[in-house]
Amino acid sequence: MPRLTIDDLKRMRDAAAPTIALRTGTARAKVTVHMGTCGIAAGAREVMAAILREIEVQQITDVIVTTSGCAGWCSREPMATVEVRGQSPVKYINLTPEKMAMVVRQHVLGGEIVKESALAAGCETTG
C-alpha cells in the first residue's frame, strides 16, 4: 500500500468536511441514531446512511446528526430521536432507510411528525 501524502490527507479532510459539519455547531435540529449493539443488528447503520444521504440530496446544512448507545427499547430498533429547536423531541421506532428519509423530509424539513413511525414525543425526565 502506498504511503499517504499531505495532499492525500487534505483531500480526505475536504471530502469529510460536510459530514463533520453536520455533527458540530448550532443547528435548528438534531437527529440522534441509537446505535447500541441491538440497533446496529437491527439496521441502524443503514438508517444512519439514509439520513446522511437525504441531507446531502436536500443540501441541508443546519442539522446535527449524531449517535448514541441503546435507548432501552431493543425490540423497537432501529430508533432515532429528532429534536427540532422549540419543539419536544420525538423518538422514532422500527426505522428503515425509507422511513428515515421520510422523517427527514416530513419532520426535520417540514415540521410534521411522522405519526406512523413515532413512539413518543417529549422529554425523558425524572422530576
Secondary-structure map with pairings?
Layout: H1 6-22, E1 29-34, H2 37-42, H3 44-58, E2 63-68, E3 79-84, E4 90-92, H4 97-109, E5 118-121
Parallel strand pairs: 1-2
Antiparallel strand pairs: 1-3, 3-4, 4-5
Can you give a write-up of this model?
It contains 4 helices and 5 strands. With 127 residues, it is an alpha+beta fold. Strands 2-1-3-4-5 form a 5-stranded mixed beta sheet, with helices on one face. Strand 3 (79-84) and strand 4 (90-92) form a beta hairpin. The longest helix has 17 residues, at 6-22. The mean pLDDT is 87.
Instruction: Summarize the amount of helix as a percent range.
Output: 40-55%
CATH level-two architecture: 3-Layer(aba) Sandwich
CATH superfamily: Glutaredoxin
Shape: globular
Question: Could you provide a short overview of the structure?
Answer:
Helices cover 40% and strands 20% of the residues.
Note the main attributes of this structure.
127 residues; alpha+beta; Glutaredoxin; five-stranded mixed beta sheet; 4 helices; 5 strands
